[in-house]
Amino acid sequence: MRTLLLAVAIATASIATPAFADQAPVHTALLSRLAVGGYDPVAYFTDGRPVRGTVEHRITHQGYEYRFASAEHLAAFRANPSRYLPQYGGYCAWAVSQGYTAAGNPNNWRIVDGRLYLNYNDEIQTRWERDIPGFIRSANANWPGVLSR
After folding, report:
1. What is the DSSP string of the chain?
2. Which of 50, 64, 102, 123 has its CA 20 to 30 A from that of 110?
3. Do 113 and 83 form a contact (C-beta atoms < 8 A)?
4. Is the pLDDT of residue 8 over 90?
5. In angstroms, what CA-CA distances link 39 with 27, 61, 81, 116, 133?
6. What is the pLDDT of residues 31-63, one digit of tens each?
7. What are the pLDDT digits (tens) for 58-116?
8. Among the listed residues 55, 61, 44, the one whose alpha carbon sits nearest the alpha carbon of residue 106
9. Residue 42: which residues within 8 A CB-CB, separation 6 or more?
């Protein structure tokens, strides 16, 4: 019996997942594949504000679900996803510039040079806005390597 228990313990340990696996390239809630918190990434560009997407207008892009407020927004995304995807997979732009990841909040956003950036909260957004070009340069240098730190 003791030998059987030891064999089961060894087998279980060998199939366990590593404790510090790389992070996903797109920020989502725990156990979810829903990107941008369910907000419509096209709406930031067309409406100038965050708008919740709907399940009626959704698409799976590179394994993640994106939702849209209208069929027109879905079509625009489908035609050119890279134009609308948030930078750094929707992680906080300021955090990535500092060499780590944090959740990007769909309500803390800014479009800079035609690209969508999300930040963690109001305080971090204000900090990021003090030197947007510098933080973008740092974040670009850190991305995507920051996902495996």
Report:
1. -HHHHHHHHHHHHHHSPPTTPPPPSS---TT--BGGGGB-TTHHHHTSS--B-EEEEEEEETTEEEEESSHHHHHHHHH-HHHHSBGGGGBBHHHHHTTS--BPEEEEEEEETTEEEEESSHHHHHHHHTSHHHHHHHHHHHTTGGGG-
2. 64
3. no
4. no
5. 13, 15, 15, 13, 25
6. 999 999 999 999 999 999 999 999 999 999 999
7. 999 999 999 999 999 999 999 999 999 999 999 999 999 999 999 999 999 999 999 99
8. 44
9. 68, 69, 73, 74, 76, 77, 84
Identify residue 104 by its one-letter amino acid code.
G
Give me the pLDDT at residue 22, please. Answer: 86
Length of the chain counted residue by residue = 149
36: exposed, middle or buried (C-beta count within 10 Å: 0-12, 13-18, 19+)? buried
What pLDDT is stored for residue 75 in this prediction?
98
pTM, to two decimals: 0.85
State both tokens at 67.
């939702």
Structure tokens at 37: 């918190």
Give the span between the Cα atoms of 132 and 142, in whole angstroms: 15
